[in-house]
Amino acid sequence: MFGEQLTEILEKYKIKNRKLALLTGITEGFISDIKRGRSVPRKDNLIAILDNLPLTKEEREHLYEEWEREVSPDTFVKKYDELSNKYRLLLNAAGGEEEGRTKIEIQRINEKYIEKIEAEKEKYKIYYELFMLLDEDERKFTIKQIISNIEFNLRTAGKYEENKEEIDFLKDCLKHEIEYEF
């Protein structure tokens, strides 16, 4: 509970209710009620408390989270706890926090990549349908023109040598009239 956490912090730093009251402008009685769990401060009072205690970043975040739990509906707190537990289990299953976070981030990036590929597939379907409107000779001619343009652009950009194998493969496919798919 927030009051218990605040009490521990005040004891740790040897700060009396009177001193905190003077620093924050909150009455000693209200601070006492907060510590006993009878009251929860409004957000402006919480910020005043947090700003006037010598907290580490972790202590500040923890105290804020405890306050949020206290002022949130029970259903929210229950759902938050369930998700937090699942997240911790996932991190542990993935080999610890750092490795787990890395794996989760990799998974997120992979999912984003898959979404982009799926969107690209839709474009390719349109390109394919348009391309298939041409007869076979026109398709071959169009492909030759595209390869020629790509080759020119790669030479201009100074990237031809690193892509030469792929260009040669495409040219070879056209020479031997191997079926191409998009």
From TrEMBL:
Pfam families: HTH_3. Residues 18-60 form the HTH cro/C1-type domain. One of its GO terms (molecular function) is DNA binding. Gene3D superfamilies: lambda repressor-like DNA-binding domains (1.10.260.40). This is Helix-turn-helix transcriptional regulator. It comes from Fusobacterium hominis. The lineage of its organism: Bacteria, Fusobacteriati, Fusobacteriota, Fusobacteriia, Fusobacteriales.
